[in-house]
Amino acid sequence: DRDVTGVQTCALPISAVDVRPADADDGFTFVLGRTRVPATVENVIDTSRATVLGATGASVSTTEHLLSALFAMGVSNAEIVVDGPEIPAEDGSGATFAAAIPACGLVVQNRPRKVMELESRCWVRAGDRMIAAFPSDGFRVRFLADFPAPVGTQYFEGEIDSQHYRTEIAGARTFAYLHEIEALWARGLGRGGSLENALIFAPDGPMQPLRWPNEAVRHKVLDLIGDLALLGAWPQCEVVAVKSGHELHASMLRALQRAT
What we know:
Blueprint: E1 6-9, E2 12-14, E3 17-21, E4 28-32, E5 35-38, E6 44-46, E7 52-55, E8 58-60, H1 64-72, E9 78-82, H2 95-104, E10 107-112, E11 115-117, E12 122-126, E13 129-135, E14 140-147, E15 152-159, H3 162-169, E16 175-177, H4 178-186, E17 199-202, E18 205-206, H5 215-228, E19 234-242, H6 246-259
Parallel strand pairs: 4-9, 11-19, 14-19, 16-17
Antiparallel strand pairs: 1-10, 2-3, 3-9, 4-5, 6-7, 7-8, 12-13, 13-19, 14-15, 17-18
Helix pairs in contact: 1-2, 1-5, 5-6
């Protein structure tokens, strides 16, 4: 295992995404043609279905899966060159990205990894949705999700580090309901959606074998980690989330910036 307190960088070509080394303290930057978009909450332009980053007319969607893998696997600085409007879906999880990072190798740079420490609790809420962060000596997540049947209420808690991320979180797939996919198809949309890049739930249950009984909430944790990557620092805190999503995550990032 490498020292995750050191800043890491890597070079990682995947499909229409090329993740290249970056200098220490540069953080994550998306390169969209001639436009450079730092991966920060200030550049979040949409959170309705995914976290979309953009600036000066250029944008990239579904950034959270790749950022989640990079961030949790110890990468702190990278240029992410994207050819297309969104990050490739792969199988709907972060497993491909997480596996490729150690395969291509990491370089320890000459700066300590930036760490965000809290002096007191911080939280945001919207109706029955809430996310809070508490001072801690490490990064831990507790997530309670509640979805319509047949998914239902699911819970996950665990320490977040590269080993646990790869074995317990990275493989959790994004999910959707069959009636949602069929509605998109009827409108001529979502033609790329299939059983290969998402976990689909029919009225009587999942249409593919589950990787974990609570795979849906594990994917929500994957998304949360990807959104927290926009902090630009490792969150040394315990995060408790209740039914939160991308929009509330962005609000939490702004609250954390004000608190630290």
